[in-house]
Amino acid sequence: MNKEKSDAYKKLVAEMQKKYPIFDKNSDAELFAPIIDGENICKEINLYTYWQGLDYAKYTPKIKYLFVLQDYGCIFDEMANLENFKKINFGFKDTPYFSKKFNNSMTDKNLIKLFEILGYDLNKRHSDLFFTNFCLGYRKNSEVKITRELMMQDAEIFKKLCDILEPEKIIAMGRKTFECVYKALTGEDNAELLQYKFWNIFLENHKNISVRIKGNAVQIIPVAHCGTHGIENRNAYDNELSPQFRDWQAAKKSAELYTYKTIEEALENRSTSFAEFLFQLIAEKNLKNSQVYGEHDFYCNKKMFSDIRKNTIPKKNNVIKIIFSLKLSFDDAQKLLAKAGYALSPNSDFDLIVKHFIATRNFDTKKIDEELDKRNLPTIFSIK
Q: Count of alpha carbons within 13 Å of 74, Cβ hemisphere only?
């Protein structure tokens, strides 16, 4: 458990609960805290988190996918899942969020089918998934319309949540959700969506969308809503889920797609160099170069940084040292290696060990050298 993340998450949950008033049917407020008859029903950031993300504060696992929906709806009328939430709060952690007997949500039923594309069975809880709604207040009744303005009132809390979770990817379901997620994390509207205007056209044509969270690259994956209206809007011909299946398949493969039609277009979109990307990462993490190469040249030395500024490419082991020094996300680590002309081979024991340490965000230099030495492989930080 990462105590810093655990404490920050608990504090954020408390902030969310204090933000909204206790339900009063005579109140003019539209959104309320998850408190029923004086009982705090939600112990997580959101009731949707009871499906995937339960007990995050206890374990603080690495999150691969943060899944975001618009809002949870109204919990103050009779709700079948209410008893399940109470059981979970009383310690029955094996109580499922989704019950075929009581859950009549088309959205939830379809999500089970769609997440299978990514290799997840949502009938079980997965430590690397986290579900939440962007809007963290609960509707007074079904007549309340959730606007972008209402949603953006929780933008600051959502950004704090992302800073805590540091997800690899964010799946934003529905146009309003995507717009709010993007703006909360960048402070801007998505220019490509403004260009295409129509949501369906955007879903079929947009390029990879990447934002930075605490200096790390995070992909945002926009998808159509899989509830009744979302299916109707995504597919004008009939009421079926096939367009959503295509969207999720495309999202899964998006990182592998090559989009340039001519050599000129490819050259115009030349990526940053190794040096440019490295110093961009350092700046985003608000570090000085001296903090990266460290004392006594432990990670790398000052001369190497001088050579990098002259576009000299360091050796692979030195790039790995820089990755450990910056504690890069797995995506950024792969990009930095690629810009130097290297990759982590799936056939090399050395590379597989390095890959495991980076992917699990374990930057213990002594531990990785111990694992390498144990297998008679060359160490990275110590001299054999």
A: 14
DSSP conformation letters of 252-277: HHGGG-----SHHHHHHTPPPPHHHH
Per-residue b or e along 93-129, where b marks 16 or more CB atoms closer than 10 Å to that residue's CB: eebbbbeeeebeeebbebbeebbeebebebeebbbeb
Q: What is the DSSP letter of 189?
A: -
Residue with tokens 């003019």: 28
Contacts of 193 (CB under 8 A, 6+ apart): 175, 178, 179, 182, 199, 202, 206
Contact assessment for residue 226 and residue 109, using Cβ atoms and an 8 Å cutoff: no
What pLDDT sits at residue 346? 81
Nearest to 110 by CA among 239, 300, 285, 8: 239
- CATH 3.40.470.10 intervals, the chain: 3-256
Instruction: Decide if 342 contacts 314 (C-beta within 8 A).
Output: no
Helices 106-115 and 242-253: angle between axes, nearest 10 degrees: 40
Residue 121 neighbours by CB under 8 Å, 6+ apart: 112, 115
CATH superfamily of 3-256: Uracil-DNA glycosylase-like domain (3.40.470.10)
Cα 170 to Cα 168: distance, rounded to the nearest angstrom: 7
Model confidence pLDDT, tens digit, residues 281-326: 888 777 776 666 654 345 567 777 778 888 888 889 989 988 998 8
Distance CA 80, CA 72 (A): 14
Residue pair 43/89 in contact by the 8 Å Cβ criterion = yes
C-alpha 271 chain-centroid distance: 24
What is the spatial distance between Cα 144 and Cα 191, in angstroms, rounded to a whole number?
Answer: 29
Rg over alpha carbons for the chain, rounded to the nearest Å, is 23
